[in-house]
């Protein structure tokens, strides 16, 4: 795993032996009953405190061009970046913002296989970024959620069956200010559920996350069109109920709504 340390330098993300092995359960927790028969309730079963969506990270072939197109289309501001202009020759990454909505676009600029501990949220090496784009094209790599404690969230999720992707890590000298950890979003996939926490998110001492250089906003925090936040994230899977079982067991999240083919009408 790309685990941070107090020493400067780069680290190599080693594979997790249990990666891609789905937890075994005797019976499915999720049952499809259809929209008309679904009864909503909140069992208050979360296994750690979740505050809000923090960001969505896309991996692409050209971070500058892709971010510029999305910024123009959605009226979002470039608020932070790292690239050749900031002294980073290994990869480029740009963070866009409109109110509480943050999109991040990252792309490789080298073939390095190591991670840089100065960037705790960049958990794909440049070479791995290239492989990810080759496999998926422009695609989401990480769904980032702001939690009360990223270490606790990681420990409890893994103890409940989540496949670990990145153990809790921070930038050197910034161990308590911002913490990042990750588990696989799907037991057999390569997209991650990223936990972020720390005082640096509360006091906004970072323009985005550690390692990024702030960029002066054009429209302020509201963006040009006023997009506010992420409401939900849709993930396409080959097997619905096993995927739902996995994420419910790992996080304690509960089913909020349900739709089947019989209840969906396209007009």
Question: What can you see in these coordinates?
Answer:
The chain is α+β, with helices and mostly antiparallel strands and 267 residues long. It has five helices and eleven strands; from the N terminus they run ββαββββαβαβββαβα. It has helices at residues 63-74, 126-136, 150-159, 199-202, 240-251, and strands at residues 11-12, 50-59, 77-82, 91-98, 101-108, 114-115, 139-147, 164-169, 179-184, 192-197, 213-214. The strands form two sheets. It has a nine-stranded mixed beta sheet with strand order 8-9-10-7-2-5-4-3-11. The protein has a two-stranded antiparallel ribbon with strand order 1-6. The radius of gyration is 19 Å and the shape is globular.
What keyword list fits this structure?
5 helices; nine-stranded mixed beta sheet; 267 residues; disordered N terminus; two-stranded antiparallel sheet; alpha+beta
Shape: globular
Give, in order, the helices and strands: EEHEEEEHEHEEEHEH
Q: How are the strands ordered across the major sheet?
A: 8-9-10-7-2-5-4-3-11
- In terms of DSSP E residues, the strand content is 15-25%
**Counted beta strands:** 11
| First-last Cα distance | 47 Å
Residue share in helix: 10-25%
* Largest sheet geometry: 9 strands, mixed
Number of helices, where a helix is a run of at least 4 consecutive DSSP H or I residues? 5
Radius of gyration: 19 Å
Contiguous low-pLDDT stretches (5 residues minimum) are 1-26
Structural class comes to alpha+beta
Mean pLDDT: 86
